[in-house]
Amino acid sequence: MKRTATLIGVKPEKIADYKSLHAAAWPDVLARIRACNIRNYSVFLREPENLLFGYWEYHGADLNADLARMAEDEKTREWWKLTDPCQTPLASRKDGEWWSHMEEVFHTD
């Protein structure tokens, strides 16, 4: 299992929309997340900085292949058309990143 943490900005005027979307997340999108071997997925909001922190655990064998399968899913792409305009990627993100990946520096169970 691989733990992943990511960070992205959220537009202040879109916070209510973002919360509303996630309060009624689409079953097809949730099913695709599970089908792509992602578990224990959470998104946290930090105000007033307007940052979203994402955490998830990957339980598969090929993360890149599973993420590609997710990106090919029609319902997931429709979902992203609603959520992406709410977000502001960090200026420091790496090439190809939307959400910026974070380094794990400590963990305990």
Write the layout of secondary structure elements.
Elements: E1 2-10, H1 15-23, H2 27-35, E2 38-46, E3 51-58, H3 63-72, H4 74-83, E4 87-88, E5 100-101
Antiparallel strand pairs: 1-3, 1-4, 1-5, 2-3
Give structural notes.
With 109 residues, the protein is an alpha+beta fold. It has a single domain (2-101), classed as Alpha-Beta Plaits (2-Layer Sandwich). 35% of the residues lie in helices and 28% in strands. It has four helices and five strands; from the N terminus they run βααββααββ. Strands 1, 2, 3, 4 and 5 form a five-stranded antiparallel sheet that branches. A hairpin with a 4-residue loop joins strand 2 (38-46) and strand 3 (51-58). It is globular and about 40 Å long. The protein starts with a strand and ends in an 8-residue tail after the last strand.
Tertiary shape: globular
Rg over alpha carbons = 14 Å
β content, as a range?
A: 25-35%
| Largest sheet descriptor | 5 strands, antiparallel
The named CATH superfamily: Dimeric alpha+beta barrel
Q: Which ranges are low-confidence, i.e. pLDDT below 50, for 5 or more consecutive residues?
A: none
Mean pLDDT: 97
CATH level-two architecture: 2-Layer Sandwich
CATH fold assignment = Alpha-Beta Plaits
Any idea of the CATH class? Alpha Beta
Distance between the termini: 14 Å
User: What share of residues is helical?
Assistant: 25-40%
Number of strands: 5
